Amino acid sequence: xxxxxxxxxxxxxxxxxxxxxxxxxxxxxxxxxxxxxxxxxxxxxxxxxxxxxxxxxxxxxxxxxxxxxxxxxxxxxxxxxxxxxxxxxxxxxxxxxxxxxxxxxxxxxxxxxxxxxxxxxxxxxxxxxxxxxxxxxxxxxxxxxxxxxxxxxxxxxxxxxxxxxxxxxxxxxxxxxxxxxxxxxxxxxxxxxxxxxxxxxxxxxxxxxxxxxxxxxxxxxxxxxxxxxxxxxxxxxxxxxxxxxxxxxxxxxxxxxxxxxxxxxxxxxxxxxxxxxxxxxxxxxxxxxxxxxxxxxxxxxxxxxxxxxxxxxxxxxxxxxxxxxxxxxxxxxxxxxxxxxxxxxxxxxxxxxxxxxxxxxxxxxxxxxxxxxxxxxxxxxxxxxxxxx
Length: 389
Hints:
two-stranded antiparallel ribbon, 9 helices
């Protein structure tokens, strides 16, 4: 190679190499590798994930000729003192699961590949702490439409560190993607919940989705006693419910109606109760202490026409003790300024990109997330651990 050619190649390679370095550097700033915030409780956190099959339900969302029974993925977090292993990945089902979630939400599949390096504070398979005679209180967490269980891992870990057993379902066909142990991945699709603007019977689709989520959680409650090593450590008489969006509506559905689930506390994060309908929400026997948090983004929206009257009526019943069969319980709605509907989640792990594209509001993402975990924890401690805060 002549000297002139070497110089020419060098002059091309150097700017090109600098450009690659610059792109990588900018990407590192925009999408840094983060780890979940440390829990605040005295205990370490153990976790397991497992596939569960509900033999009583056919998978109605499947298009297969033989759809089989309804399957969901679930993760359990619990207190432990064993920290001998390595902390589990925040998204423990691997890169294929992450890419399917990203794709289902309309982004390029590879854009969040660095998520595989983000760690939780949980130790996989660690033995559960010995409980007292009553067992640990239980909290179920339910994500929203096209969500996934990892969106609320920070809340789950914080609660587990304070002596709760926490279980989150990944609702098949309602989650952005579910990856089962056999490698099967099932994504959400527009046919499950078509556009409101283009679908006259939108609320029929929405009701089916919310009640499917509710049935998944009802199935979890029935199944958990049989989970080896964990089921016998749970006090099911002290059960709390936490749900975001569709999951929030599902939790309200769980405690309404003739098939009501007994619960001692409920936290709704922009709980989407519209699909339940006014008749169901006008039930005069709501007896669960409840805290509903509403984002500024959803203030005044369609859902408010259902949520606000429901909360007002439930609060009146709680204050007045409307009949001998209605307990006096607090039901409260709090407005949170400067946050979006999606901000009730761990999307702060992808800041600042999530802020640039409008998924996070003007409120500081980390400060809000810290406050949300504290408020949820203190509310549940007050009602499930008799620890007034």
